[in-house]
Write a structure and sequence with these properties.
By secondary structure, the chain is of the alpha+beta class. The protein contains seven helices and ten strands.
């Protein structure tokens, strides 16, 4: 009887080990699939130099494009080669990452509860800054590459198709409703009546570099701490923003005035952006805090 019990215990251990092995293999395969998909979507960006900031006085009517004061110091920036994702990270890919890393799901935002279209699989995921950064770093760990959030300089250089004089990161540098950005009716339809510009990826033509929705359909996190006077003290080679701060730099359209979509328009928000009276664990964050990753050399 004793030997029979030992035998059964051994068999159970073998079965459990086999199940664990199968589970680990499936996890590794799914992880690799997400990593491969992410890398396949990366667009190479040849480095170079450009004038960062509001270049309005250099072109056209020779007047500033932006109403901001923190982007007026045009300054030379030199960047190394890098790669940037052609799409923002979607709800689908982010939810895969959550499952693969055994993390707790994000709290569902109050607005998303009422407009379920915003949680669609091909809509950009809205997350706090640190969670966005951790996602990119995880891709880097799993791929063996230097993956991170883009610096503010990388973001602007890429959105302007390697630093060209493009006011908007659309197919032609202009905002043409129904052609390269949605009409109000299209936004209403894609968001279930929410009406603000948070819509599925890849619906409209990319910028000349091949990047979709850059500066459109949400404000994108960058790696940099925000400082209003940073442009006056920025380093020339691969600048990385202020050494410290309370807010992170965001770039992109959050609705309202088209100013937010300008390729040089600077925004900032707390790493966990909350509306007054909101609690993250209960209310989540409002939609529109989105991101994409870069591969550095």
């Amino acid at each position: 009887m004793k030997y029979k019990f030992v035998f059964l215990l051994s068999m159970a251990s073998v079965v459990l080990y086999g199940c664990d092995n199968k589970s680990n293999t499936e996890n590794e395969q799914q992880t690799q699939a997400l990593v491969n998909k992410s890398l396949a979507n990366m667009i190479p960006v040849k480095g170079g130099d450009f004038l960062m900031g509001d270049f309005g006085p250099l072109v056209g009517e020779k007047i500033p494009f932006s109403i901001n004061s923190d982007d007026k110091k045009l300054h030379k920036v030199i960047l190394d080669d890098f790669m940037v994702s052609k799409y923002k990270v979607t709800n689908h890919d982010f939810n895969e990452y959550i499952k693969l890393t055994n993390q707790k799901a994000l709290p569902e935002g109050v607005i998303v509860r009422h407009y379920k279209e915003l949680s669609g699989s091909d809509v950009s995921v809205s997350v706090p800054w640190e969670i966005a950064k951790n996602y990119c770093l995880w891709l880097g760990t799993k791929s063996g590459k230097k993956i991170d959030l883009p610096t503010e300089a990388q973001w602007e250089y890429a959105s302007r198709s390697r630093g060209g004089y493009f006011p908007y990161a659309t197919s032609n540098g202009k905002m043409e409703k129904g052609i390269n950005v949605p009409t109000y009716e299209e936004k209403e339809q894609m968001t279930g009546g929410f009406g603000l510009p948070y819509y599925p990826i890849g619906k409209y033509p990319p910028n000349p570099l091949g990047l979709f929705d850059m500066g459109l359909s949400g404000a994108e996190w960058t790696n940099d701490w925000y400082a209003a006077d940073y442009y006056a003290q920025s380093s020339i080679k691969n600048p990385k923003g202020s050494e410290k701060g309370k807010k992170k730099v965001l770039r992109g359209y959050i609705g309202g005035d088209d100013q937010y979509a300008l390729t040089m328009f600077r925004q900032s928000a707390s790493p966990i952006p909350l509306l007054k009276g909101w609690v993250y664990e209960k209310d989540g964050i409002s939609p529109g805090y989105v991101f994409r990753c870069v591969v550095n050399n």
